[in-house]
Design goal:
Strand content of chain A: over 45%
Number of strands of chain A: 11
Oligomer: heterodimer
Number of helices of chain B: 0
Number of strands of chain B: 11
Largest sheet of chain B: 6 strands, mixed
Structural class of chain B: mainly beta
Shape of chain B: globular
Radius of gyration of chain B: 13 Å
Distance between the termini of chain B: 41 Å
Distance between the termini of chain A: 36 Å
Strand content of chain B: over 45%
Chain lengths: ~110, ~110
């Protein structure tokens, strides 16, 4: 089963709200990723967890906070977002954090008002 | 710095034709190259992964080739169908283990 699930599918939030995006995989993968994708652009890497440790943290604003409770789950906590943060947020996983094939979830369409 | 280019940005062909999508990269020091498909507003579907030691991979009507020395990969789609309409992205896994993405080719198959 090469499935990565994400909830919710759609999210609308105000700039003062706090919300969380969730991602789950049951492939036994040890690396999980968050990407942000704007319309007609390729995905941009935000965070990587490899063996439940944050190994890459690009210069992503602190209003995005990742959490990896265990090797199957990945959350992205959102707080005080800006309208320009509206995008498709994609979760992915791979066998390891180096060269494994990445499998993506369906994404969460986020709109910040 | 690795750069990945996909040409053309868009392609429209009649149903039934065989077609080739192109991906080029500037640094041959890659671990692998992955082709994805993305339908509008949806997530990415992994189509094929080619390791740096491989020359090609096949899955159904899809065949991907890799020529590291020239920095090129092609995705060949045989007997195209309207359901193949989507954006196709290639990405290379470079020395820092991150995926470096092309901008994609939007493919339209006309019935």
């Amino acid at each position: 089963d090469t499935e990565v699930t994400q909830t919710p599918k759609h999210l609308v939030m105000g700039m003062t709200n706090k919300k969380s995006l969730k991602c789950e995989q049951h492939m036994g993968h040890r690396a999980m990723y968050w990407y942000k994708q704007k319309a007609k652009k390729p995905p941009e890497l935000m965070f990587v967890y490899s063996y439940e440790k944050l190994s890459i943290n690009e210069s992503v604003p602190s209003r995005f906070s990742p959490e990896c409770p265990n090797s199957s789950l990945l959350n992205l906590h959102l707080h005080a977002l800006q309208p320009e943060d509206s995008a498709l947020y994609l979760c992915a996983s791979s066998q390891d954090g180096t060269t494994g094939e990445q499998f993506f979830g369906p994404g969460t369409r986020l709109t910040v008002l | 710095k690795q750069e990945v280019t996909q040409i053309p940005a868009a392609l429209s062909v009649p149903e039934g034709e065989n077609l080739v999508l192109n991906c080029s990269f500037t640094d041959s020091a890659i671990y692998n190259l992955q082709w994805f498909r993305q339908d509008p507003g949806k997530g990415l579907t992994s189509l094929l992964l080619i390791q740096s030691s491989q020359r090609e991979q096949t899955s159904g009507r899809l065949n991907a080739s890799l020529d590291k020395s020239s920095g090129r990969s092609t995705l060949y789609i045989a007997a195209s169908q309207p359901g193949d309409s989507a954006t196709y992205l290639c990405a290379v896994r470079g020395s820092n283990y991150q995926l470096i993405w092309g901008a994609g080719t939007k493919l339209i198959i006309k019935p």
